[in-house]
Backbone:
């Protein structure tokens, strides 16, 4: 902390809320510009919708969602259509205000017409989502999983997932939603911040009982009942990678606007909190992504009426300390310097565990997505944190001291990394999904003025012209009309009114439109892929020509 300012720059900046907390020009910052905006409920739903349009099967881990108020008529019409097609379908929906957290303002409904009764939708945009009625229950209770994910770098994409997470339990036995129980938050919402106020909330000193447990303790239980936890982990990893692939295009637009390429600036990393619900059949479903997951390792305890004290929470400590420790080990600037210069850094300047190669250990349960095996953890004990510490002190004097840059003293024996690299490790399996990323690259190329996130009409025209997309069937006048129509619609519903012009999502819509026009008979993802290839090819040719002209 440097409350009175400091003259020298830092290696790592740990901001509380967002990238813009302070002006930073070097080092590494624990926040990406635009992350908060990108993971808001509405923006996330839009990004997931785009991916669901392109790859419906691959993105079926996100519940069907509609954005209110703009898609209220669509919501009503689609639900009616689905009910007509399947009269036995008795859905429930969950309405979540945009920008809300901790269960704030969330309610369940049985029928779209119930939304209008609340009246606040116009003033507070929201997402309405199909409610997952058959979650997996443990001890008859609904629970969700909070998993910590480190986005270590955007370009190239580097993702790490923490081996353990938290399971947060409801405090009333679950029943499928009926008109009678819809309002029972302790039955339907797993938020810690809500359930803590229930008389049934159990603070446990153990990590495998109580209202907050480690995810590994749940896996252990599932595995002992014969569940395929290996597949479950593999599905979770794939959910995380696909979700980040959906978010990267938008993040890249923010990134280039705040940290233009070629200019000195910081690099970014960020710990994200993924909220995942397991369905009865063990399918993981994404609920949301948190840009600022709570890293508290204490909770309040009422000692006597009205007298509160912060006491350690063993479950939080077990999971979160490891996440922060490993994040610092992975972004360790000394390690990078050593790698770059091959100069041995004196031990006193080294970060804990600096000798470890991030993500390269092939430690089960992360042995390759196909044959991913989930090492079922030993039955968790209440003292497992203490055990980690014991391990450290037992191994401390030691073996690795001859290594040129091995840390010495107690640092030498830090536990192995809890954060495991999943990308680029599994990049091959997922690269075909990164279409919107390539559309975003085209968008960024034509943004022109540095520091913007929106494309002006001239930029759009230049894009069309340089990629030779205009012809006798699609005149430049039609190009302008397309630009105006789509931009106007997106700006009328956008949250960001600061800049005028075409936002990335509007550009993506326009791009899809052009792709559909050009390659009529193909499925959407092939239409889009074909148009991307065409654009990239024509731009490369143009670039080549310019180089030749330059030489001439
Ligand atoms: P918040 O940011 O306010 O916590 P969430 O999207 O995480 O909002 O939702 C709050 C809680 O509501 C979740 O923790 C989960 O228990 C429940 N929930 C959210 N979406 C669904 C859904 N589609 N189906 C079932 N339960 C859900």
Residues:
């Amino acid at each position: 902390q440097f409350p009175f300012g400091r003259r020298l720059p830092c290696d790592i900046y740990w901001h509380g809320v967002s990238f813009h907390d302070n002006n930073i020009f070097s080092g590494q910052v624990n926040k990406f510009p635009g992350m908060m905006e990108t993971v808001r409920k509405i923006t996330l739903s839009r990004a997931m919708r785009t991916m669901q349009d392109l790859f419906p099967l691959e993105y079926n881990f996100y519940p069907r969602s509609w954005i209110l108020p703009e898609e209220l008529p669509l919501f009503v019409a689609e639900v009616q259509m689905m009910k007509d097609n399947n009269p036995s379908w008795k859905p429930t929906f969950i309405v979540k205000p945009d920008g809300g957290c901790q269960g704030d303002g969330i309610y369940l409904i049985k029928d779209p017409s119930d939304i209008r009764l609340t009246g606040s939708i116009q003033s507070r945009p929201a997402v309405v989502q199909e409610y997952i009625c058959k979650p997996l229950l443990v001890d008859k209770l609904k629970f969700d999983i909070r998993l910590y994910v480190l986005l270590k770098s955007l370009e190239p994409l580097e993702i790490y997932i923490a081996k353990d997470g938290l399971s947060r339990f409801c405090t009333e036995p679950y029943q499928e939603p009926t008109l009678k129980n819809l309002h029972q938050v302790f039955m339907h919402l797993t938020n810690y911040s809500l359930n803590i106020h229930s008389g049934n909330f159990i603070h446990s000193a153990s990590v495998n009982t109580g209202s907050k447990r480690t995810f590994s303790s749940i896996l252990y239980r599932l595995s002992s009942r014969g569940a395929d936890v290996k597949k479950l982990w593999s599905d979770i990893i794939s959910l995380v990678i696909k979700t980040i692939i959906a978010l990267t295009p938008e993040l890249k637009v923010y990134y280039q606007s705040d940290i233009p390429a070629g200019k000195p600036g910081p690099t970014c990393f960020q710990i994200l909190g993924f909220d995942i619900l397991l369905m009865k059949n063990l399918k993981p479903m994404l609920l949301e992504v948190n840009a600022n997951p709570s890293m508290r390792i204490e909770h309040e305890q009422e000692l006597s009426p009205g007298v509160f004290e912060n006491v350690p929470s063993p479950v939080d400590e077990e999971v979160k300390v490891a996440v922060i420790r490993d994040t610092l080990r992975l972004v360790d600037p000394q390690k990078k310097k050593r790698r770059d210069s091959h100069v041995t850094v004196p031990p006193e300047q080294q970060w804990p565990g600096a000798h470890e190669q991030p993500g390269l250990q092939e430690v089960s349960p992360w042995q390759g997505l196909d044959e991913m095996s989930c090492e079922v953890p030993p039955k968790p004990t209440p003292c497992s944190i203490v055990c980690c510490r014991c391990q450290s002190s037992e191994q401390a004097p030691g073996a690795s001291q001859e290594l040129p840059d091995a840390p010495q003293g107690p640092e030498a024996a830090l536990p192995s990394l809890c954060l495991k690299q999943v990308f680029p490790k599994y990049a091959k399996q997922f690269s075909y999904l990164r279409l919107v990323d390539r559309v975003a690259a085209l968008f960024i190329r034509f943004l022109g003025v540095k520091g913007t996130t929106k494309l002006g009409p001239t930029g759009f025209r230049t894009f069309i012209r340089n990629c030779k997309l205009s012809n006798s069937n699609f005149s430049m006048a039609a190009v302008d009309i397309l630009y105006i129509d789509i931009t106007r619609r997106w700006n009328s519903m956008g949250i960001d009114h600061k800049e005028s012009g075409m936002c990335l999502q509007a550009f993506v819509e326009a791009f899809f439109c052009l792709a559909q026009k050009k390659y009529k008979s193909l499925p959407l993802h092939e239409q889009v892929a074909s148009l991307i290839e065409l654009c990239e090819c024509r731009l490369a040719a143009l670039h080549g020509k310019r180089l030749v002209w330059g030489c001439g």
